[in-house]
Amino acid sequence: MKRALILTLSIPALALAAWGGAGAYLAATQPSVKIERVTPLSVSAEKTLPFYELMSPLPPLESYQLLPKLEYKKGPPTRFIERLSLLVRSGPGGARERVVYYGRRTREDLAGLKLIEGDAPEARYLEAAILSSQGLDTGLPAWKNFLLRPLLLREAGHYLQNVSEVQIMEQAGVPAFLFLGERGAAGDIKSTAIFVRRNSFYRTEYYSTQGYFALTPSEHFRKSFLVDKREGAMDYLAKNLVNVRLEQDKVADVKKIEWPMLLLAAKVSVDPASIETYFHFAGISALLYRSVAMDGADTETLDILRNNVLAAEFYARDIGPEAPKTAEIGRLARALTRNLE
User: Fold this and answer.
1) Among the residues of the chain, which ranges form H helices?
2) Domain annotation for the chain: domains and CATH numbers
3) Sign of CA dihedral 60, 260, 234, 206
4) pLDDT digit string (tens) for 140-172?
């Protein structure tokens, strides 16, 4: 009986010791990164667009070439498309970088979240994970730190690989995060920004093969913010699109068509169930592909424009397979791929 009682009492102690050991092991395996608190920056003369619900500045259109790329994933995309990317170049054949915007991802897998009190617990959970990974004060009571430590460290481990610095920015009482990547052996760099609203995570990735030149991730991050509501993003785009006329003679000059094309790409991200938007986005991509402006264009540019039309057709068929404009997009797609066949 006495041995049974001792064994019974020792089980919780062993479990606590094992839990503490798991936390110690995970802490020892965390990469060492710099953590910096930063403040938001105001947007001055830059053009801004809401990709999904994240309002972001664009590099100067007069200085750089921007080309949006629509990527297809079988839908129908009633809420959002998975991702949309921007190719940024300093000129034909010049340096290039890429910005990738991801649609809202709902997370319900944050174990122990109920122990985080107050507003924006999901964002505070990630903040505590980052701070805990570097042995910094999370602001949580000691007993919560003990219970959450292995869970927080596991979460931090998903973000900190090949990262040199984490910037944490408070916006309207909610922290956002920028993970600045280390330069790879080939000179490439990837940095990632995370914005959080309740259990919705918005991710932006910055890629460069020769160092950032157009969009400094930290500055772009600090000038970005989530709009209050999706309707606000749609209203903003509608006010800008009302002045756009997709005239064929404008396509001879790529600079004149960049802004309308970017507006339509942003519209696709916030209103992915609109065949009308896919129709115009496919149309402008096809016009640019066939224009004299593309004489001598590189293969990557032509591939992006052609794939924009194909992706728009796939999405339109998912949403409204019998719609007349879906058939129109299909005809554009067949015309652009006829030579390939």
Assistant:
1) 2-28, 121-133, 142-157, 217-222, 230-241, 254-270, 275-290, 299-319, 324-337
2) 33-226 (no CATH), 227-341 (1.25.40)
3) negative
4) 999 899 899 999 999 999 999 999 999 999 998
Reading the block at residue 327, the tokens are 């058939």
CB-count burial class (<10 Å; 0-12, 13-18, 19+) for 88: buried
The CA distance from 170 to 286, in Å, is 42
Tokens (6 digits) for 286: 């096809």
Sign of CA dihedral 117, 122, 124, 129: positive
CA 267 to chain centre: 15
CB neighbour list of residue 68: distance below 8 Å, 6 or more residues apart:
84, 85, 86, 87, 261, 262, 265, 308
What's the CA gap between 300 and 224, in Å, rounded?
28
- Looking only at the bridges linking them, the beta strands covering 34-38 and 163-171 are parallel
Distance of CA 277 to the CA centre of its chain: 21
What are phi and psi for residue 130, nearest 5 degrees?
-65, -45
Q: Give, in order, the Cα–Cα distances in Å from 38 to each of 93, 219, 222, 287.
A: 35, 10, 8, 43
**With the C-alpha atoms ordered 275, 239, 245, 90, is the resulting torsion angle positive or negative?**
negative
Q: Say if pTM beats, i.e. exceeds, 0.85.
A: yes
**How many other C-beta atoms lie within 10 A of the C-beta of residue 276?**
12
Which tokens hold the place of 58? 């664009």
What are the angstrom distances between the C-alpha of 65 and each of 15, 92, 221, 249? 58, 9, 20, 19
Which residues share a beta bridge with 35? 166
Q: How far apart are CA 312 and CA 282, in angstroms?
A: 6
> Does 173 score more than 80 pLDDT?
yes
